[in-house]
Amino acid sequence: MIDELPDNEVKYFTKHIKKNYGYDFENYAISSLKRRLVRILSLYQLQSLEKLSEQIQKNKLDIHEVVRQITVNTTEFFRDPTTWQFIRSEVLPHLIHKPRIDIWHTACSTGEEVITMAILLAEANLLDKTYFYATDINENVLEIAKKAEYHVRNWDLLMENYNAYQPNYPIERYCVKHSDKFFFHKSLTQNVKYEKFDLVNDIHTQQYDVIFCRNVLIYFNQQLQNEVVSKLANCTKPKSYLVIGSKETIMWCKAAERYNVLSHKEKVYQLK
Amino acid sequence: MSVEHIIVIGGSAGSFPIMNILLNRIPKNFYPPIILCLHRLKNVRHGFAEALNLKTNIRVNEPQDKEPIKSNRIYLAPANYHLLIDYDHTFAFSAGEVVRYSRPSIDVLFMSAAAVFGDKVTAILLSGANTDGTDGIYAVHKKGGITIVQDPTTCTIETMTASAIKNVPVQYILPPEKIITTLISLFPITN
Questions:
Q1: What's the mean pLDDT in B117-122?
Q2: Does A248 contact B at CB distance below 8 Å?
Q3: In this complex, which of A72, A80, A247 lies closest to B65 when CB atoms are compared?
Q4: Is residue A66 located within the same domain as residue A87?
Q5: One of B112, B132, B135, B141 is an active-site residue; which one?
């Protein structure tokens, strides 16, 4: 097993991927990027990144699948229950009087947090006037998100998180279990537009009331975090919200001065 | 002052009391940063660092992403993320797949510590019920770092330490009280 990749090989590989396929991993945080790449080599039983490039070039490996493996797609329903409690009590009340609510999930992966937010909005009677833009760099995960059907192995975690969010309230109101899957009601996701979007390369001009960018920034280096947080600030309506992951911080970013910290613990920021 | 040497400690089932005794006895001017990776419950996000804080002479915290590693500190890997060391001596996180059923994984922390700090790493593995830590101890050994494993006969559950000893030529196999005296003799307090 390869346990470490030399810097120059990683640089050469990311340059090659950027030039030929447009995916830009050059400013990813290097330690975790190397870990992902070592994992991929072992998964495909390849000896070097050069061999990996070769396999992609010869179409023996699908670039989208390789991108899916490089990026981390871990997500959960109601992940960090207290964060959702905070959104319910401190953010939703400010959305009630808006004629229309726009929400952007910038890296929605397989869609669990889109459904989580839709449930919060449904319970506050705000879902009908809400429009979601749910994006991810990877089309394969978006296909799963669009179906809003999940394997029962995720059920226990959903129950555990949802009960921590609000005990004694049946999640079965929103979904149906059938054999080894469970399906969320289509009404939850009827106003969701799923689309491929690359936070590093793509430009977006629409403005949102709430932007979710949870557990994405951890994979970027400081320079890229800076760029991406500025981009997100430009897409946030005044007095509107940015939610990031529980171990992330925007404190090192230039755009931090454009935000007030609503909760250090739950990582909710409000644009000034 | 820049950090020259780091100490990484991994533990699982049965390691919490040992970890507490160790931390309790670390002198308050102990210089190298100590980074802990303990397997624990996922939704217990807060309170654990605070609980440890009560029994140490050194400040304990769960780091934030990109936080620079500082001397004379104890850091604790947060629940549900892998904690890594990055090349600019800052902390990095990943929510990637569990490794040996664990997130945070001891292997992930130890391997990244070895990659970044080379032979300037001391890795300590304590009691536990799985085999997380073996690959990590191996990575530290390969780079010439110092490897210490709790004597399996003193572990509540010996699976983790026995696995490391079986697979890696570990330098020190010690009961808990010797781990602390060895650490203090390896890194004497100078002022």
A1: 97
A2: yes
A3: A247
A4: no
A5: B132
The parent domain of residue A132 ranges over 81-148+187-271
Show Cβ contacts of residue B14 under 8 Å, excluding neighbours closer than 6 positions. Answer: B126, B127, B128, B129, B155, B156, B157
Catalytic site residue B163? no
pTM of the model: 0.93
- Residue pair A27/A223 in contact by the 8 Å Cβ criterion: yes
- B132 among known catalytic residues: yes
Cβ–Cβ < 8 Å for B127, B15:
yes
Judge contact between A74 and B103, C-beta under 8 A: no
In the annotation, is B5 catalytic? Answer: no
Q: How confident is the model at residue B2 (pLDDT cuts 50, 70, 90)?
A: confident
Given B12, B105, B127, B163, the catalytic residue: B12
A109 touching chain B per CB within 8 A: no
Looking at residue B191, its pLDDT comes to: 56
For chain A, the helix, strand and coil percentages under 3-state DSSP, each to the nearest 5: 45, 20, 35
Which residues are within 8 A (CB) of A243 and not within 5 positions of it... i.e. 6 or more apart?
A: A83, A87, A210, A211, A212, A213, A214, A266, A267, A268, A269
Q: How many CB atoms lie within 10 A of CB B130?
A: 18
A66, A85: one domain: no
Instruction: Report the domain count for chain A.
Output: 2
- Could you tell me which residues come within 8 angstroms of residue A199 by beta carbon, excluding any fewer than 6 positions away? A106, A107, A137, A213, A216, A228, A231
CATH 3.40.50.180 is the classification of domain B6-186: yes
First to last CA, chain B: 13
Q: Which pair of structure tokens corresponds to residue A186?
A: 């289509």
d(C-alpha A251, C-alpha A228), whole Å: 13
CB-CB under 8 Å, B112 with A215: no
* Whole-angstrom distance, CA of residue A25 vs CA of residue A224: 10
| Percent over 90 (pLDDT), chain B | 76
- Nearest by CB to residue A217, choosing from B65, B82, B115, is B65
List helix spans (H) across B96-152: 106-117, 134-142
Q: Identify the closest residue of chain B to A162 by CA–CA distance.
A: B43
